[in-house]
Amino acid sequence: MSATISPAIRKQMSSVSVAMKVAVIGSGISGAVCASTLARNGVSVTIFDSGRGPGGRMSQRREIGEDGKELMFDHGAPFFSVSNSDAMALVHDWESRGIVSEWKQVFGSFDFASNKFLGIQQEGDAKKYVGVPGMNSISKALCHESGVKSIFGTGIAKLEWLEEEVPWLLKDSQGENVGRFDGVVASDKNIVSPRFTQVTGRPPPLDLKLVPELATKLQHIPVLPCFSLMLAFKEPLSSIPVKGLSFKNSEILSWAHCDSTKPGRSTDSERWILHSTPDYANSVIAKTGLQKLSNETLNQISEEMFKEFQCSGLVSSLPFFMKAHRWGSAFPAKSVAVEERCLWDRSRNLAICGDFCVSPNVEGAILSGLAAASKLLQTSSCL
User: Where in the numbering of this chain does the Amine oxidase domain appear (predicted)?
Assistant: First the structure.
């Protein structure tokens, strides 16, 4: 006699048999939001990231001062604002979980030509949110949710399409197989870009011939590079009346903020972060290329950026810690999928998401991650 299987059990078995396995490449906010959304809807998700931890440009940098004490810096995105209702719903959820808080400080703009502040932004302006205790706290929490497996220190060097039931085979930089997947989400615009070759010396992970239409949109996205300078002072910079300021009429600096005034941060020292102008960063890259910079070059950049900060007349003391970091493709200069919010190839179950799709900011990255997840979930429901 054959065993009788109840409709409920049969439905469960059917659900298990068709559960999608999706690889998400990159653990920045776009990839992390996508992975979390997929996992909450029953998809098996594995995140791969070449870095030591999650965050992308919302990473937090850990440094050690000469006294041996730990220094933490949000050396990428300083904060974010949201206006879209879908993004706002996520932010409210993150606030309730204690991984996001509003940064309630006064901001302004400083003009180097006149050496004066042009204006001070009051609290009536758009709310500024930060991750707590670091900007990477959001991605870190999302990457460790139930149903999400995160593998760090593993860059994906090759995505192979096989005409089989589970079509995607991913390989790392050593040529080792790291898994087979039904679908792939790439949150890195360099996955099919010549820029990947310029940085690594290897061909892009995704063969252009597989996705010619997407490749055309992704190959030549103009980017605006940026250097960030991390500074730590023993005493507060009391002559600066704001905690975040944009700069006008400076060839070197575009932004500065006091990182230690954010919620949940250590106040053992006063830590500031400066951002360079894209023109300054481009001038350096034109001389050095995109390969890893020497300590000598980074020290020179640090000195030039800090000297410009001093020229504002706002800084009266020297930092006890100073270190520069290069963001080679910090900000996309154009958006490639404003309406769709992500790039999607239905025949390959491949989504590409990131701020380069919607708008060059954290909210754009969030919305693109949500859109990519939606595409994969529509596919999953059809299985």
Answer: 113-376
